[in-house]
Amino acid sequence: MENKHHKVLLISTGGTIEKTYDESDGSLENKRSVIMQKISDNIRLPYTELELEVILSKDSLYMTDQDRQMICDYLQNRLKENLPIVVLHGTDTMEITARYCFERIKSLKVPVIFTGAMVPLEFGKTDAVQNVTEALLAVKLVKPGFYISFHNELFEVPCVRKNKDNRTFESYTADAK
Amino acid sequence: MENKHHKVLLISTGGTIEKTYDESDGSLENKRSVIMQKISDNIRLPYTELELEVILSKDSLYMTDQDRQMICDYLQNRLKENLPIVVLHGTDTMEITARYCFERIKSLKVPVIFTGAMVPLEFGKTDAVQNVTEALLAVKLVKPGFYISFHNELFEVPCVRKNKDNRTFESYTADAK
Amino acid sequence: MENKHHKVLLISTGGTIEKTYDESDGSLENKRSVIMQKISDNIRLPYTELELEVILSKDSLYMTDQDRQMICDYLQNRLKENLPIVVLHGTDTMEITARYCFERIKSLKVPVIFTGAMVPLEFGKTDAVQNVTEALLAVKLVKPGFYISFHNELFEVPCVRKNKDNRTFESYTADAK
Amino acid sequence: MENKHHKVLLISTGGTIEKTYDESDGSLENKRSVIMQKISDNIRLPYTELELEVILSKDSLYMTDQDRQMICDYLQNRLKENLPIVVLHGTDTMEITARYCFERIKSLKVPVIFTGAMVPLEFGKTDAVQNVTEALLAVKLVKPGFYISFHNELFEVPCVRKNKDNRTFESYTADAK
């Protein structure tokens, strides 16, 4: 049996994970996508073809519903190809965007997994590599649906939120939010 | 709803992943387990308690069926606790040990996932962190059974083997081996 | 002959080198000194005892002459101990502070070497380790005087300045400034 | 004044520093030179042009006087260009080769600095970057002569030797050897 080759669509909307440091002015901002080089340097993918699409370069704190609609439309369009999808997104409103899409996109045939990082990938102690590694594996293992993948946990949307105190994500019961 | 806390049993048998460099004689060998510090430094596990058990410190090229029986007995005993298990093992005979256990341990109630690395974890370009990260996530997602987790793929035992040319693992159909 | 043991005084005033990332608000700022752990993890010093003194935690863009006078007074006081000194400082006004001290402190009996980094030490691609490594070696090799050590060059104060375009330092002739 | 541009000749003879890991057989050996990529990734050299010459790829434990004569002849020849020289060499017999050259090459007009590493550069915790960084700076600062640069110390040849217990180098008085 030939080994199954996978194609995964990696969509970047920016977020902390993709913030880059600029030596000229000391800024740490979303300017361009840097995830592919990081993946290339750190994650072995012998049977996976990754296609990167950068649709936004924003700190999610500043995302509007207009941005979310754009992301949602983009997902809806790409989902026709039946490729599993990993979406990079800022952690501040990842749960909002994920929920927004969950409410508008029904009958998924593939997993759509949101992830990001608490620390930009350029940092030595980033959690970016862990989170992206896990999302890329999870997208091969789980049934169709919307998820957030973070710090070795896979959360089903919509009952997931950022836990600012613990600097990670958590699930909650619908009534307890 | 409280977030589910997991306990995972991490069993080390040595392997390339755990080989350490000795400055005094330039050797690269299995001497002691070094995985916990690497996990601690690289993988965030807010909801996972890891228990490490070092039962062997061997390059799997030199493993005997006696070693495999010991590993198998140890697994059988610990499986009474119903904890998901990740086993670190050398890549050269990982598929043999995994198969050995698969043939002797029936009615698993948890996943038992073998992993390791092509490059010792002390190297800058190690695949150890990726593989252990993935195994720790997979063990939360998949149904009971024996698996090998490697380079962003999860393979069901027994139809999995090392691909020496491509320096990774692959699945195969039973008759094609 | 016993190997000469050195004691070096490491004075931190903050600067880009010491900026730390805060996950809770995404800020990158001078909050506390983090240099000792970085040195401990990256630079072997079998014959050198380092004493760290954190006298300021400032981005040098915001330094005032009052700050510089404080640094200068502190140096003048510690110089009584005849220990070679390395000063961590932001790159934006390192040359101003170094010159300020050069003009006020005469008859040095030890080298006083300023250094810092273009990229905070928490980043994977930081130049912090290189610069501090070099300053710690230079302070053992050169004659008494004020210097800036940066990117494998040692510059005598006062004719040194930051080159913003090339993101490094350079020397210049007095009349050409 | 224009900034002085330096050209430095980097000669590799192999040694622990240049040992590379081979996934196919688990070996750690001197096969080819890997130093330039490591320097490129870790050391900023805005004013330095490095020319690498790989003249040997040997663990210095196995070096013969024939090898040393070859190294010595090569140095003698290249010294006509009056470029400062850094020589990468295994630590086991670095002092022997350095002394061998010291005894045969007189009237140096440039520094010739030997260095290497206790841990191969491919390891996360290598001392290779520190040692090469220091040698590249020292070669700009010191007077002509033969030296060993190691772990933030510069030792004049011939009274320097490896200290195996402390896993570093040390100087000694001629009669005390």
Return the average pLDDT of chain A rounded to an integer: 96
Q: Indicate the percent of residues in helices of chain A.
A: 25-40%
Which residue ranges of chain A are poorly predicted, with pLDDT under 50 across at least 5 consecutive positions? Answer: none
Helical segment count of chain A: 4
Distance between the termini of chain A: 48 Å
Class based on secondary structure composition and strand pairing of chain A: alpha/beta
The largest sheet of chain A, given as strand count, sense and whether it forms a barrel, is: 6 strands, mixed
Largest interface, counted by CB within 8 Å of the partner chain's CB = A-B, 33 and 33 residues
Got a strand count of chain A? 10
Which strand order spans the largest sheet of chain A, edge to edge or round the barrel? Answer: 4-1-5-6-7-8
- Percent of residues of chain A in beta strands? 25-35%
What's the alpha carbon Rg of chain A, rounded to whole Å? 15 Å
Seen as an oligomer or otherwise, the chain set is homotetramer
